[in-house]
Amino acid sequence: xxxxxxxxxxxxxxxxxxxxxxxxxxxxxxxxxxxxxxxxxxxxxxxxxxxxxxxxxxxxxxxxxxxxxxxxxxxxxxxxxxxxxxxxxxxxxxxxxxxxxxxxxxxxxxxxxxxxxxxxxxxxxxxxxxxxxxxxxxxxxxxxxxxxxxxxxxxxxxxxxxxxxxxxxxxxxxxxxxxxxxxxxxxxxxxxxxxxxxxxxxxxxxxxxxxxxxxxxxxxxxxxxxxxxxxxxxxxxxxxxxxxxxxxxxxxxxxxxxxxxxxxxxxxxxxxxxxxxxxxxxxxxxxxxxxxxxxxxxxxxxxxxxxxxxxxxxxxxxxxxxxxxxxxxxxxxxxxxxxxxxxxxxxxxxxxxx
Amino acid sequence: xxxxxxxxxxxxxxxxxxxxxxxxxxxxxxxxxxxxxxxxxxxxxxxxxxxxxxxxxxxxxxxxxxxxxxxxxxxxxxxxxxxxxxxxxxxxxxxxxxxxxxxxxxxxxxxxxxxxxxxxxxxxxxxxxxxxxxxxxxxxxxxxxxxxxxxxxxxxxxxxxxxxxxxxxxxxxxxxxxxxxxxxxxxxxxxxxxxxxxxxxxxxxxxxxxxxxxxxxxxxxxxxxxxxxxxxxxxxxxxxxxxxxxxxxxxxxxxxxxxxxxxxxxxxxxxxxxxxxxxxxxxxxxxxxxxxxxxxxxxxxxxxxxxxxxxxxxxxxxxxxxxxxxxxxxxxxxxxxxxxxxxxxxxxxxxxxx
DNA sequence: CTGAAAGCGCTTACAG
DNA sequence: CTGAAAGCGCTTACAG
Lengths: 354, 354
What we know:
By secondary structure, chain A is α/β, with parallel strands linked by helices. Chain A has helices at 7-14, 18-25, 33-46, 52-59, 75-90, 104-116, 133-141, 165-178, 194-209, 226-239, 251-264, 266-271, 297-316, and strands at residues 64-69, 94-99, 121-124, 146-149, 159-163, 184-187, 219-220, 245-248, 273-277, 291-294, 326-329, 332-334.
């Protein structure tokens, strides 16, 4: 059984002390360049891998960030994860990723474990279930910096990086109305979560501002996933009373709506305008792409890391916790090139009134 | 700044020694039940979270498994992750998840870090790029158990849990042929990866066995994702020469194919039979569900953990490394209830010959 | 059932 | 530029 090589093994081989080897490996200026290189070469030859457990224990820094997301089979989250990973690597941090599967209890367990692993900071997007506040109190008590992104708990005094959900939703629906659409449905997310409530509020605001009634039978709440979109729109299809446009609270919801429409009739899929909050990677490749409210997803990941690292540094420097920062990113309405907007061509079965 | 509470803090408060507290917390039989409960209660009150770094360092076991997957925005992998997480938790292990984004270099970095974190074992599904074999040699040299699942490196002597890819593909295509289909396209994955080669081989075998030629222009290799399916089938649509059925190497590929077909015409989406290797969660909800080769996805996760834990135990017990185990799981062809199979109703535009 | 000693593999001051 | 001492917070034998 191969004994694992330690600092001291390298030191003995090189007739140095383990402190010198330790410093050489970390490019400490104490050590001459020649020695550093010799040490590194020897370490590589011997197949040395530093024991991060020992390093973290003695340095009291794990150089590790915990990242907790509600789900991963979703472009939005996989993109954020990628951006966080990239940004963290640049700064010399590793990421420990945990998935709560939209369950508060798993979220709690994961955070507990990350705390026990002594991560230097936490990046969290909460599950759609009512969160366990006690675990966040615990994070506070242990003095571990935490930054929420996208989905947060609003009143716990942690920093957050979010998107201007209400504004984005309102602008998207405004745009539809300006294009002449009047009959606009909203397949909403869960109202348990802030982003669900805000996006819906933006939709309703836009209608009211233009003096349009909110069509209660066309506002359907549920999850944030494709199945909800599919089921919800099937219900609408069954009534026979169809909207001219659909505002979907997430891109997966929009996919579900699209599939329901498409299966019903290709003509409909040409004529019912879908607008989604958020984008999916493939949208632009489709013949009938959705309109999308673009969230700066990668930037959200980057900024979250940035805010978190700043808090970690402040802590290191012994500065008292500052007020939490709340970064709100702007969205942008994306019209694919040559988008076959219903008002601009003659094909739609359901021409918008107006 | 809240000082973190340690074993010794609890010990002092309770007038015990830290060893006793340590044992009590881990339910060691040395300690009386009463004391154990008192200790636990006090620990909870004081907000104690064990320092896993210290625990792992001194016990030489991290009770942590590293899990490396090529991508996460894909039902197959998110399901495996879920199953692995569940199974590991039962056995008292935590999971550190890492995503290689189909890149060999990221895969290498992640494994390096997991090794440095001293995970007790590794579960890996390789990226579609040519893997860096050196890192796996390193894993071997450090004597860390590793089990590949789904996508493996065949000749490195590690255990694996896979699916009978070739058989599954062959049976699916056999079935189509028995139903009277003759013109069957294959949107294949990458031939860089074993599962891509095997699934294609199964498809070709089925055709040959029935004396049918392999239609080279209808076999299109690429990635494993939706975009490849969409692009590939668009190319076929452009030729005007359409198959009666499509065998897709993965479920996402099938989705892309379906979307391309659907956008073209609803009639086509009723009549071109799609069969996918693997399932996606939503398939059953759709009006025109695909036929699917069911992979026992959760079982794959469970078995992978099982095999890995067995190897870890063997190592603990000082037994010499046994021969690698190769678990191959069977697949099953899934026909949704009341599936509108083309040969069974009169609607298809392209009735299968035969 | 309880305790004192040694050590896991590193890093952090502090001397020289 | 190099080294000896102390310690990070635990657990593992080994005594009693």
